[in-house]
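Please check this.
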Amino acid sequence: MAITYHAGRRLQGLSTDVNPTYETDFSSSTGWTQVGSTTSIGSGIASLLPTSGNNDRVYTPISFNTNGKFVIDYDFIINSESKSDSSSMGIVGTSNSSDGSLTDDAIVWGIQFAGSSPTVSLFGKNFSGGSEDSTANGTIQLSTSTTYYARIIRDGTSNIMYLYTSSANRDSGTSADSVSITMTSAVTNDMTQLVLGGRTTGSGSCDTDLDNISLYSGVIVANSGKPANVQVGSRFEETDTRKMYHKLDVTGADLSLSELKAYWKFNESSGDIVNQAISVGSTDGLGTTASNLQIAGADYDQTGITSNNKSLYFDGSDHGQAGTSASQFNFLHTPNTKWTINFWLKYGGDTTGNTILDTNGGGGTARVGLLIDVLTDEGLEVWMGRGVALTTVIAKSTSANFVPSDSAFHFYSIRYDHTLASSNVKISIDNGTPVTGNKTSDTPSSADSAFPFNIAENCNGYGAFLDGNLTEMSIWNRVLTDAEVTTIYNSGSGKRIGDSWKEEGT
């Protein structure tokens, strides 16, 4: 069902409509890396003009692995073209390569010339280990100066591109041409780069403008959902549930995304837990694959805060690590630093020191960095140390209420402002009154070397692996206001950062 727009900023649609995991209208080039000069982002479009096999492209990390189910919507128009026999140009692709190249594990959809014919046709290619696996050269004839509305649906090894001449037809799924591809072998690596352009062959060229990309993770059906590009103050009614939603300004007074460095939703079904900070709109996010959490042994697809949220279960022997170095997280333990760490935890009840996260390394007397752990008898603790030992607790909850035994998710917020003389650490649970603590002389300095950033692990012999579920973890290089923490807590419902729709009942 397509979303219906009414006067007075009122919208209607089904509850089954899916929100995009990532979308952009190219109003900004932030987060994109450009390779070559003929493909670029500017003036609200992606301009693609790779020629002569130069594979010019732009790419950005995305918030999910495209090795499974997904839907991609985008619009494109061919301004002009210059043909050569069997030449082709990629429009949209996904890749596992950190430089966005489409030469390892990748899938790409684009434009291909049909011999000497003045027409072009769509193609899709799968590359497994650098070798082309499957290709479908469609018979859809494209024209210049016509806006096309594409939808790509991937379900396992099946890939179908649908092409529409109106956005309304795409929303309703009617009057489409299509190209279907069935991969003969599976892509094995995690594809977490969105690539525009690239994979050019032959000597032809095709001047193409690309706009309005939306990516939906883990589904093979996608409609407009609650749209992002509507006015603040709009109201959305789910016609099947009669629930009402109000459009908020999450980048204004409601919640600023400034200095959001990392945001892990834990919604993945396999592979890395992807840092989604840039995807939800932060211009300060850590956009490197090293900030994705590499998971060892945890259980995916576990129940989250709500039915629309998942979590990752750690059983007391599992853990995760952000790449092999934590240099990008140095702001957590440098002089005069400010930060906020939020997460939802369903504690399993292990009485030993269960680690939530740490930048601690070396073990023994070489411990350095930050440690946050939880114990049933002592509550939640924040440790900092440097040099000889990680032995100084700078703040800890003194109430058992900070470690509930009700097998439910609870929201934790830790805020640290090293510039304050006292009460510079605040710990709160479920948006309650914070417990405060003070900095010490053992606070790490800029001279401290970085160690891997870990979650749920035993901190190189200190504490223990986590027994419990984690979801919706965010790390900020600033102290969030009380109002912003309240917004994220969302009365216990857990506001997913970047989701600007607030439920108002029926």
Observations:
- The longest helix spans residues 482-489.
- Residues 362-366, 387-391 have pLDDT under 50 and may be disordered.
